[in-house]
UniProtKB/TrEMBL annotation:
Domain spans labelled DUF7382: 54-118
InterPro entries: DUF7382
Keywords carried by this UniProt record: Membrane, Transmembrane, Transmembrane helix
Protein name according to UniProt: Ig domain-containing protein group 1 domain-containing protein
Residue spans crossing the bilayer: 26-48
Organism encoding this protein: Halorubrum persicum
Region (Disordered): 123-158
Length: 158
């Protein structure tokens, strides 16, 4: 009985196993496909982020004064969009940082994008300075967010 069919397959298997290009080429091709796929995905995500309506507008809070002393006082806080336009109906929240206030102080921006927040910051014993943090809760209308840190108010002992 001829064994040519079986011998042919065995010969092909031996030549395939001996050919290292097939084994070495596969991982390289997978890496190239992965790199191209990731690059394409990042381009598509960038295009989606640029579409109006899907992107959110970051707000910034600018308190005045930025440096103050302990005791009763008012902070005027402007809420701005990236273009420098002031935003109305945003809620400004001032919290204790390394300087302390009782609870949380809040204010709402008027049509000029300004809010006045009354605070009474205190520093601990032997504490030369501290900070108050300022956050913004965006207005309900519009697609605003406040995800980045805002300017803190520095409280300096007299």
């Amino acid at each position: 009985m001829p064994h040519s069919k079986r011998d042919g397959r065995t010969a092909n298997n031996r030549s395939f196993r001996a050919d290292r290009r097939a084994i070495e080429g596969l991982p390289v091709r997978l890496v190239i496909a992965l790199v191209v796929g990731v690059a394409s995905l990042s381009v598509m995500m960038g295009m989606i982020g640029d579409i109006e309506g899907l992107s959110a507008t970051e707000l910034d809070a600018q308190p005045q004064p930025e440096v103050t002393t302990p005791g009763d006082q008012s902070l005027d806080v402007a809420v701005l969009d990236p273009d420098g336009s002031r935003v109305a109906d945003a809620t400004v929240i001032v919290r204790s940082g390394s300087a302390q206030i009782d609870g949380v102080a809040t204010g709402t921006t008027n049509e000029d994008g300004m809010a006045t927040v009354d605070v009474d910051p205190e520093l601990g014993p032997n504490q030369p300075d501290g900070t108050l943090t300022v956050e913004v809760k965006p207005p309900a209308e519009g697609d605003y967010v406040d995800e980045r840190g805002n300017t803190e108010v520095l409280v300096v002992a007299e």
